[in-house]
Design brief:
Layout: E1 11-17, E2 20-26, E3 31-37, H1 48-61, H2 79-89, E4 97-98, H3 99-106, H4 112-120, E5 133-134
Parallel strand pairs: 4-5
Antiparallel strand pairs: 1-2, 2-3
Helix pairs in contact: 3-4
Length: 136
């Protein structure tokens, strides 16, 4: 018997920010991505997660928010990437760490390239603060 393939509805909204136009995507389970885009279309299809992310991003960009509490939907990524992103979320506002420090936090200084690669594949920048990791 064939299993039914479940499709995930994607909701989206847009935010104009200091770093460009952001497309915010979410499912019924949480925030899935934030992407910098060139143009903002006229139509949007928001849900509670895109709306909450939009509000929190706007507060962040005007300096009123330092932490985010929107639920994330990161299904389909590797366990290693998820562990890296969890470490990123723990970096306090206004602080930075190096890629070497990130690898050490992951438990193996030799995983520095893999940790850097996972950092670069972060689908939810700003909320998962990959920008707080620096070269040295």
């Amino acid at each position: 018997m064939e299993e039914a393939i479940r499709t995930k509805t994607t909701y989206f909204d847009y935010c104009k920010s200091a770093i460009g136009n952001l497309c915010i995507g979410a499912s019924d389970n949480g925030l899935m991505y934030i992407k910098v885009v060139n143009d903002v279309p006229y139509s949007v299809c928001p849900n509670q997660y895109t709306s909450l992310a939009l509000q929190q991003l706007e507060e962040y960009f005007i300096g009123e928010r330092k932490e985010f509490d929107v639920k994330l939907d990161l299904i389909g990524y590797s366990d290693f990437a998820m562990k890296v992103w969890q470490k990123l979320i723990c970096i306090p506002y206004g602080k930075t760490i190096t890629y070497q420090q990130l690898a050490i936090q992951m438990g193996d200084v030799k995983c520095i390239r893999a940790a850097a690669s996972a950092n670069g594949r972060n689908p939810i920048p700003i909320i998962i603060p990959c920008h707080r990791v620096i070269g040295s």
